[in-house]
Amino acid sequence: MAGAEGVEVTGPLHDRYDEVLTPGALSFLASLQREFGARRKELLAQRGVRESRLTAGGTLDFLSETADVRNDTAWRVAEPAPGLEDRRVEITGPTDRKMTINALNSGAKVWLADFEDANTPLWENMVEGQLSLRDALDRTIDFTSPEGKGYALKPDDELATIVVRPRGWHLDEKHVLVDGERMSGSLFDFGLYLFHCARRQLDKGKGPYYYLPKIESHLEARLWNDVFNLAQDALEIPRGTIRATVLIETIPAAFEMDEILYELRDHSAGLNAGRWDYLFSVIKKFRSRGADFLLPERNAITMTAPFMRAYTELLVRTCHKRGAHAIGGMAAFIPSRRDEEVNRVAFEKVRGDKARESGDGFDGSWVAHPDLVPICREIFDGVLGDRPNQRDRLREEVKVSAADLLAVDQTPGEITETGLRNNVDVGLQYIASWLGGNGAVGIHNLMEDAATAEISRSQIWQWIHNDVTLADGTRVTEKLVEQIIDEELGKIRESLGDRFDEQRFAQAVSLFKEVALADDYAEFLTVPAYERMP
Ligand SMILES: CC(=O)SCCNC(=O)CCNC(=O)[C@H](O)C(C)(C)COP(=O)(O)OP(=O)(O)OC[C@H]1O[C@@H](n2cnc3c(N)ncnc32)[C@H](O)[C@@H]1OP(=O)(O)O
Ligand SMILES: O=CC(=O)O
Ligand SMILES: [Mg+2]
Fold it and tell me: Which residues does the UniProt record annotate as the domain Malate synthase N-terminal (predicted)?
């Protein structure tokens, strides 16, 4: 494979990788990295500065310097692009060939093709995911399971619209060096998909669409907008062709929703309420601030907690004021085709979650599994009927203050030994799976991904470092957690039997201790985890 000037690919080049990593594509990636790499690093450093202020006792508020943007009632985002008018059901998931076909065929309006929370950024997952997307658009994708079950796409007009979620700004792609430096994982995922699939999508009457994860400020949204403009110009695609839905899934971003929409207004496809990373962000940003920012154990926190309601209500209000879609989040309950009771509970929980969202004015929502598509559709059908969305529901009565968004201590629930054990158990099982190359997994009938695992390990860090006592009066210490790690690992070993040794539990324990116990808190568990990957 001929290279591109200044670009070195250090990952293995398996079958067909040359179809994605072409000299033209690599040159395009290099141009994005050269233009935006330094700004990305500056913005990541600014996250640290803001976080240090919070650790020192500071707070978050709506920005005074952008009050004009918030108060100006005249501007609106672009009208929805083809394929994004009606988003009442969106399925999310990894981009391996089987999941790609299943997601596109699922009956959902949109498929979020995930290179972030549901994905281990193993080199093979990244490049083969891009091949899946391209092959899906060419309709050359197929798959045969080891049992001989064949998979093929339904006709185009029955397929979900593809929306790609690249990695967040914090992640590198270490297998592609530009002028000797690792390139941004975000730019790698974004750029390869745009380079290969923008024209293919336009030929089908749709476009290159993205979900943007883990953004912490409108300046990060501005960076994405500048990336879009340069990329569209370079590929001779009209500006405004790319559309992006931003996940509001960090607490600082909740104070900048208007500004984020404004920065991306010609490319915007709305906002999504990414509840799991949002909870992680609340814990992370205020992790050293004692009782005022202490949440109950993970499974006790619901979307009706006052600070979560404030966030979702403000999101719908802000989106609809600007003509943008407001998309709901993920209920973690997954159905089972083998256990009727598990299925019943999952359907009931998801139904309740989608009923609340559709009633609040969201225009659609996420599901994690094809069997949940009909439920989400039925609930949104009940509110939307034949209308593609409810962007006209302005929710002008919603008033949310900074204090409402920060009312973390008003969340009902407690911290128990069961909650502590669950965080350890799920954290270990998830990390072992992630290190094995699978970033989305069902554990105890709940969907676990990078965002939910971040909550588990960060709660433990917070409880140890804030002298928290459990409901039974036991203090959470490093020693106690070490003991629970041993005990929970023993249970996992027993339940897996011979399969235990096939999985990466030794590595998972070491990483879990690093990210849950070490005084020096890791900003993302996926960053040290990535360094342990080939
Ligand atoms: C916080 C956030 O960011 S949420 C968004 C990120 N997270 C995700 O996207 C998770 C998506 N969901 C998944 O990955 C999966 O549903 C899991 C891992 C939770 C469970 O998967 P499984 O254990 O395979 O579930 P199950 O065995 O019930 O699957 C039944 C069928 O549905 C398919 N399926 C399940 N989930 C999905 C999905 N999200 N997309 C496409 N197909 C799916 C399976 O491949 C399987 O297909 P098959 O019958 O042809 O073999
Ligand atoms: O990405 C979604 C989330 O909830 O996190
Ligand atoms: Mg997320």
Answer: 5-67
- 165 flagged as catalytic: yes
Domain co-membership, 100 together with 139: yes
- Does the ipTM surpass 0.90? yes
Rounded to two decimals, the pTM is 0.98
* Ligand 1 atom with least separation from CA of 438: 18
- Measured in Å, residue 329 CA sits from the centre of ligand 2 at 7
**407-438 burial code (b ≥16 CB/10 A, e <16):** bbeebeeebbeebbbbbbbbbbbbbbbbbbeb
| Residues of the chain predicted below pLDDT 70 | 1-2
Residue of 116, 117, 447, 526 to test ligand 1 pocket, by largest number of atoms within 8 Å of CB: 447
Give the closest ligand to the alpha carbon of residue 346: 1
The CATH number covering residue 160 comes to 3.20.20.360
Give the number of other CB atoms < 10 A from CB of residue 495. 9
Show the domain range for 524.
414-531
Distance from the alpha carbon of residue 251 to the mean position of ligand 2, in angstroms: 13
For residues 358 and 270, membership in a common domain is answered with yes
Which stretch of DSSP H or E encloses residue 203?
Answer: helix 185-203
